[in-house]
Design brief:
alpha/beta, TIM Barrel, twelve-stranded mixed β-sheet, two-stranded antiparallel ribbon, 10 helices, about 20% strand, globular
Length: about 350
């Protein structure tokens, strides 16, 4: 494709490489009640001023524009930790009422989910992804700097009981910390009917201490899983999903059908060519890529009186400039200034 060609008169969020963003990740806060070592320092980070964070109504308006004018079909709420956003239930309720109705999901650390899962389901949330990196309480405390593993496990059960299914688990393995737990975590997920996704550690930590040489790779994860389970190729097309999935032979998912396990190899097995995501930060910035070093400000235009079509136009322009790939393997790669907690997963 001619990357210098002018943008065609297409209403969706297309880019110069033929991709269309239909999956919107909305960060509702940069704050979190854990301090995971691969995300932020023990003392936390300088949080966004409240005045910079989009209000509930501003979030709802921008999501409405994305759904009604830009072709977004999936909306995932992220953080920081989205469960600490006071207006979360209101936002979910309003987004679930949009036409055409988008699929709605939430990525959370699970703390507080036991108390909120049923209400979120009633509000219109379809499913959740819960971060869980270990089943050992001491390791959990080492990784997150908090002793909250029982709360996360209770949140997983509550999500399943509320019907926020399939309940998915996101796991990051750290060399020398929890890299021996892949089979145990999969056994746990299979026992309880959860879907497990392993994610390669990415260069998105606030400390900028990520080192590819010490990252547990997708190949290593699969090797350890295959030593304990028989994994078969998944006949279902991956599409734009970030996870490569395998069927776990001899195991059945809750509700029938084969059990699956996934690996998201963002670094070593990139899937940029099929990426269908666009991101909105808690302070109203559009990010075309998780690893982008530039953002497009919608908050200023929104608060400056821009109408819906002008906001949609700005969003289209932002996505048209999306790069072909994240460039982690390029010697010129620069880690984004913002860490994951401020970008949104």
């Amino acid at each position: 494709m001619d990357v210098d060609a002018p943008r065609p008169a297409e209403p969706g969020l297309i880019d110069r490489f033929g991709r269309q963003a239909i999956d919107l990740r909305v960060s509702l806060t940069d704050r979190c009640n854990l301090r995971c070592t691969y995300c932020m320092p023990a003392e936390g980070l300088p949080w966004l001023p409240n005045s910079d964070v989009l209000t509930d109504d501003e979030v709802i308006r921008l999501v409405r524009i994305a759904v009604e004018r830009l072709g977004v079909r999936e909306v995932r709420f992220t953080g920081g930790e989205p469960l600490i956003r006071p207006g979360l239930t209101k936002i979910v309720t309003e987004v679930a009422l949009l036409e055409p109705r988008p699929t709605t999901s939430l990525t959370t650390n699970g703390i507080g989910l036991e108390k909120t899962a049923a209400a979120l389901r009633d509000a219109g949330l379809d499913r959740v992804n819960v971060s869980l990196d270990t089943l050992d309480e001491d390791r959990f405390a080492t990784l997150t700097r908090r002793r909250r593993l029982p709360d996360v496990l209770a949140g997983l059960r509550a999500a399943a009981d509320a019907g926020l299914t399939p309940v998915k688990i996101n796991t990051v393995l750290m060399r020398g910390v929890n890299d021996d737990e892949a089979p145990a975590l999969l056994a746990f997920a299979l026992e309880h009917g959860y879907q497990l996704r392993f994610i390669e550690q990415m260069p998105l930590d606030a400390q900028h201490g990520w080192d590819r040489a010490t990252m547990v790779t997708a190949e290593e994860i699969l090797r350890d899983l295959q030593a304990a389970f028989t994994l078969l190729p998944d006949p279902v097309a991956r599409g734009g999903a970030p996870a490569e999935t395998w069927l776990v032979d001899g195991h059945t998912a809750v509700g029938g059908g084969p059990a699956r396990v996934g690996v998201i190899g963002t670094v070593t097995r990139p899937f940029c060519g099929d990426c269908d995501r666009t991101r909105l930060t808690a302070d109203g910035q559009v990010r075309a890529c998780l690893f982008a070093t530039e953002e497009s400000d919608l908050r200023a235009a929104l608060r400056g009186g821009a109408d819906d079509e002008e906001l949609a136009r700005r969003w289209r322009v932002a996505m048209w400039g999306k790069r072909a790939g994240h460039g982690i393997d390029d010697p010129s790669f620069l880690q984004p200034v913002r860490p994951m907690s401020a970008i949104g997963g």
